[in-house]
Amino acid sequence: MLVLRKWLKDLPWVRARRVRRLHELEFEWSTASATPNEKQVVILSQIMALYAAHAGLDKFVEDYLSDPSTIYGLGAHTPFEKGSLEELAMLLSSLAWTSSSKLPPGERIALTNSAAEFMEAGTATQLREARRRAIWAVRACIAAQTTANAIREPALYSQFDAWQYWNLAVAGFLDSMLDEQAERTFNLLARLPPPRPGDDVGPLATSLATSGPSLEARRGDHTVDTASMYWARVLPLSQDERSLYAFQSIKGALFSASLDNPDATRWKDDEWCQKSLGRIAELRQVHTEYGPDSSSNASKDLETTLLFSTTDRLIPRPDEASGPLADAEREFDKHIFGRAWETNDAPFKSFLDIKEIQHLLGDDTILISYLDMRAIREESEGDWNHHDLFALVLTSKDLEFIHIEDPAGAHIVLGASGENWDRHFRKIMDVRASLRTNNHERATAYLSELSGQIIPTDVLRCLERLGGSRRHLLVHPYQSLHFCPWPLLGIESPLADRWIVTHLPTLGLLKRRNRSSVPKKSGTVAVGLSFEDREPFDLPPLPTAIDETRYVAQLCNGTAYVDSDATKDALLEALRTQRYVHIATHGSHRPASPAFQELYLWPESHSDGILYAYELMGESFDGLELVSLSACETGLSRFDRGDNLRGLVSSLMMSGAETIVGTLWPVKDDATAHFFETLYEELAAGQDRLDAFANAQRDTRDRFSSGSDWAAFQFSGLW
To answer: CA 21, 24, 25 angle in degrees (round to 5)?
Structure first.
């Protein structure tokens, strides 16, 4: 059949008929109105079709596109036949792809833009999206081809053009859902000419901020490494508002975007989740000893190390009995948080600009945001492990950008497993260990060294200068710095002597300060278990938990649920309906699968009494201002390469909770009870969350002077 068609097509009388028809159409085109209309669309699409069959599209370019604006001006200006516009769109797309010898790349891409406009107007709704993606794929291929040419022959392309074509290629492949091609093109960035002093890096910064998080959501957090290496080149040249893009695009971008999309984590509606949880429940019946007391000291040390890891390489292969259960939990964890990240196709839309952040900070807060990035180094320098630490200091009126130099040079530690650590994790581990064991001398030495790395003299001077009379220091950390005892840091005195120090897990959370549509809630519920007689989970007793729970409820005219009344259903209902919720129980942070970070409550006939982090996802906690967690290490989370947090804190925040007060390490019972009782005394007296926390921390510090007692409490979120 194909051979017959080709033979008929080449018959002399057929060719003559096409030529006559072409002449007729060309005459109509030359006499058409100067105003683009439907007739011109039909004529030009037919001319293009005849050229494609007779003389080739390159010939059409030569004859009709000496002034490309002729064709770009056409569009849906008047009533039209959808079929003619659709035909024109596809021909334009083909023309853009086949005219490399006749048109420069910019004109070819302009043709695809016009094709997309015609397709939007001329295609039925059910087909429009698929065909639009096809056109964007053509545009992306043209741009990627040009990017490759710019790498091979840099003298023929300006640096700006090379960056622009690279961005068009990545964006086009993402729009076309060709994610693998988008990642390959994104990785070409390291081969493009690097920015130099004096270059306008604004377009590149915007491109990185737009494409990077989308790739991270679709292809995985390993793509952050490429973006990070290039941001390390861009940031020193862009010490202005555009530098803020880096502090959002490779630092919790997906977590931030998920705050606006709670439906993404409705695991109850996910068939895969339900099947997976059924399998996990069956495995738990088989391996009943897999519980809170099953870990040895060695595995506890491993958990602590894993807490600072961005991959699962350190997790040893479990034994035959517990292996399937551990694997199933990690697979579920990957799925549920991956679902939260992947459903955000445009994380860039959740970014805040400098004016918004300054407005949301208010006049009493100074924000310091950190970013530690792997830098690209020339091969001759022989230093591929160098990291650059940057700090951004913001107030309602000022912005200052600081590049923190490290005299040691290399900022990264390579573990035996090949794991890449950020440079601070080991020191923070040492600080935490010395505080937990009340080794004050070692803790002081480690804190001094860590302070010199994170808040050296120039950073402290900047904070003092911009801080002025401001009394609230809001720390937006990075990776291991999330678990750093910030109130204890300082060169000559702790930061807590000068400021109320709080933690912000992601900048996107600030937007909730403007949510006037969220109804205000009232009421307080306190939930607590004593675990006396080592029931119901064979955990050590909490002798102060019941009194603490009842006292908090009494102070705020609320409700106390203790022991057998402290069930999962009671707690979830409180989280949905109350303004303040206090929880006094045991917890476990589970860094290998943070979706299963736990709070232990009273079992019921339909529930084992364990509340997992994933069970909080997809809930509606809007209007919940404060959750206080009087349980061990409830302030801990797990982070990935993109610094997206996973665990109890992030799950609560994704569902609407504004502020979490938890602990970074175990604290003795009397100090814990005193802190939380004072916190709620202040709230009952009318203090806001920030002042109540500050007063509780100060009062606890007066009574328990050791930093291991008063500095473990972390205020995370809004104030």
So the answer is: 90
